[in-house]
Design brief:
alpha+beta, Chloramphenicol Acetyltransferase, 2 domains, 4-stranded mixed sheet, 3-stranded antiparallel sheet, 10 helices, 10 strands
C-alpha cells in the first residue's frame, strides 16, 4: 500500500461526489481484422508490466483511501458491432460502458478495452482508462506496448518503473518541504481574493484592465528572447489579477504533468500535480521583467514538485487556491 498522489486523490473524490465519471481514452482504426484472443493476451501482458495499471484503492481504518498494487492485471474487454468507424459511432458504442465507478477496490474496474467491428473489413481498437490510474503519457505507453506484444507476443520490452517509486509524494525530500514552506509563508486567507473577483453581476463579462500608470503593455509581445509563451501568458494573467484585486502579492496554481526528471521513463499512472506559484507585482516594473521572474518561479516549483498538492495545503491552514490556471491557443480564420 502507498499514500495516494494528488491526482489519485482528487479523481476519486470527484468520482464519489460529482455526477460525472472521469475516463480518458484513445482509439485506432485498424485495416483488416484483429484476433480478439490474441489482442486480449497482449493487453494482459502490457498491463501486468505496470504497477500503475494494477492499482486499486481501499479505505483504511482511519477513513482515507490507500492505493493497493494487486498481483494480477485485470480489465474489461468488449467486442461490439458498429455501422461504420468514426468518432460519433465509437462514442455511441463505448459510452454505455464508461459509467461512474461504484467501487474502487478492484483494479480491473479502471480499464476498458473495445474491439469495434463493422463486419466489412474495418475495425477500431479503443483503449479507455480511468484518470485515477492513468494520464495521457500512460495511454501512449500502454497502447504502444499492446501493439508491440500483439505483433510479437514474446517481445522484449524496456523495464518499467514502479509508479509508487517515482510518483509525486513518493520521494519527498526535506528541501521540497522547505521550499514550499518558504513560498507560502505569510499568505493571507484567500476567500477575499474570490470576493474581489465576484463584484461584477452574473453572466456579464468584465474587461480587466492594467493598473493605471503601469509600464506593462496592454497586449502581449509577440516574442521576448528567452521567455516561453506560457510565461508570457502567465504574466499577463497575474498583472490582470493584481489590477483587479489591487493586491501586489498574487498566488495561483498551475497544473504540472508530474513527470519532471523522468518524462521519457517507461512508467504509467496518474502523475499530474498542482503547483502554487507566488509572485509580487510592481506597477512600475516592465512586463518583460514580471514574465522573467514568473518563468524562474515556475522552474523552481517544478524542481520541487515531489510534494503533492494536498501536502502543500497542510503546510498552511488556510483556504489555499485549488483552481488550476491553464492557457491554450486557439485560432480560426481571420482571428488570432
Amino acid at each position: 500500500m502507498y499514500t495516494l498522489t494528488t491526482n489519485q486523490e482528487r479523481y476519486l473524490f470527484a468520482e464519489m461526489s460529482g455526477a460525472y465519471s472521469f475516463w480518458i481514452g484513445v482509439w485506432y482504426e485498424i485495416p483488416g481484422r484483429l484476433d480478439p484472443g490474441r489482442l486480449k493476451a497482449a493487453i494482459n501482458a502490457a498491463l501486468s508490466r505496470h504497477t500503475g495499471c494494477r492499482t486499486s484503492f481501499q479505505r483504511a481504518a482511519h477513513g482515507d483511501y490507500l492505493a493497493v498494487v494487486e498481483q494480477d492485471a485485470g480489465f474489461a474487454f468488449h467486442v461490439l458491432p458498429v455501422p461504420e468507424i468514426n468518432a460519433e459511432t465509437i462514442e455511441a458504442a463505448v459510452a454505455p460502458y464508461l459509467k461512474k465507478l461504484q467501487r474502487f477496490d478492484h483494479a480491473a474496474d479502471f480499464h476498458r478495452f473495445f474491439l469495434l467491428d463493422t463486419g466489412l473489413g474495418q475495425q477500431a481498437f479503443v483503449l479507455c482508462q480511468h484518470h485515477a490510474v492513468s494520464d495521457g503519457r500512460s495511454l501512449d505507453i500502454v497502447s504502444s506496448e499492446i501493439a508491440r506484444l500483439y505483433s510479437v507476443p514474446k517481445a522484449a520490452l524496456p523495464a518499467a518503473l514502479a509508479f509508487h517509486d517515482v510518483a509525486p509524494c513518493a520521494t519527498v525530500l526535506p528541501e521540497d518541504t522547505a521550499f514550499w514552506q518558504k513560498t507560502m509563508e505569510g499568505i493571507e486567507d484567500v476567500p477575499r481574493f474570490h470576493r474581489n473577483l465576484a463584484v461584477c453581476p452574473p453572466h456579464q463579462p468584465r474587461r480587466i484592465g492594467w493598473a493605471p500608470g503601469a509600464k506593462a503593455a496592454s497586449t502581449l509581445p509577440k516574442a521576448v528572447p528567452g521567455l516561453t509563451p506560457f510565461s508570457l501568458l502567465a504574466a499577463g494573467f497575474v498583472a490582470q489579477i493584481a489590477s483587479q484585486t489591487r493586491q501586489s502579492d498574487v498566488v495561483f496554481s498551475i497544473q504540472s504533468a508530474g513527470r519532471h526528471g523522468f518524462s521519457d521513463a517507461i512508467v504509467t499512472g496518474s502523475f499530474s500535480n498542482a503547483l502554487p506559484i507566488r509572485t509580487q507585482v510592481d506597477p512600475d516594473e516592465l512586463f518583460s521583467g514580471l514574465a522573467k521572474r514568473l518563468q524562474q518561479s515556475i522552474r523552481e516549483a517544478l524542481q520541487h514538485e515531489r510534494l503533492g498538492y494536498h501536502r502543500k495545503r497542510r503546510l498552511r491552514p488556510i483556504d489555499f487556491p485549488v483552481a488550476y490556471v491553464g492557457f491554450g491557443r486557439m485560432s480560426t480564420s481571420g482571428s488570432p
